[in-house]
Design a protein that fits this description.
CATH topology: Beta-Lactamase
Strand order of the largest sheet: 2-1-5-4-3
Helix content: 40-55%
Distance between the termini: 83 Å
CATH superfamily: PAS domain
Structural class: alpha+beta
Order of helices and strands: HEEHHHEEEH
Largest sheet: 5 strands, antiparallel
CATH class: Alpha Beta
Number of helices: 5
CATH architecture: 2-Layer Sandwich
Number of domains: 1
Radius of gyration: 21 Å
Length: about 160
């Protein structure tokens, strides 16, 4: 690789780091074993953990205990095959905030590969949908209440 190519790649890498820091969605990268290697400011805001607290820890940090087995089974399969359906489809799952509260997140993922096409990790772009999910749940409950009330035989005609 020439000096010019090296400088261009370094500049591109620097640009990517700035983009990841600036984006409003969480960007989380984990290595093949599931250890967090990138944790941007939006991830700090959404999950409550500073980068220093998250880096090097596993994704169990934000995965609810009842979902961990399924998560790790899928993670291992994805690392083995290099294939994920969540690059094009959005996955919606619960997550955990540092304070223990439950979040509702939506994300897509992409495989991270080195120059020889070897899988070096997975990147997730994550959005907090807790507020929207809560509002939809309340709306569904209200609709069910209204439907139940309209079906009661003691309803005045």
């Amino acid at each position: 690789m020439s000096d010019a190519e090296t400088r261009m790649r370094a500049g591109a890498s620097s640009d990517v780091a700035r983009f990841v820091s600036a984006i409003g969605d969480a960007v989380v990268v984990a290595d093949p074993e599931g250890a967090i290697t990138v944790w941007n400011p939006a991830a700090e805001r959404i999950f409550g953990f500073a980068a220093a607290e998250a880096l090097g820890r596993t994704l169990d940090l934000i995965t609810p205990e009842r979902h961990r087995r399924r998560h790790w089974d899928g993670y291992a399969k994805t690392m083995q095959t290099g294939i994920t359906r969540y690059g094009a489809e959005t996955l919606r799952v619960p997550a955990i905030h540092k304070d223990g509260s439950q979040l509702s997140i939506a994300f897509t993922v992409g495989m991270v590969r080195d120059a020889s096409d070897r899988i070096t990790g997975i990147v997730a772009v994550i959005r907090d949908e807790t507020e929207r999910w809560t509002a939809e749940k309340q709306l569904r409950q209200r609709v069910a209440e209204l439907e139940a009330a309209s079906d009661r035989p003691d309803r005045a005609s």
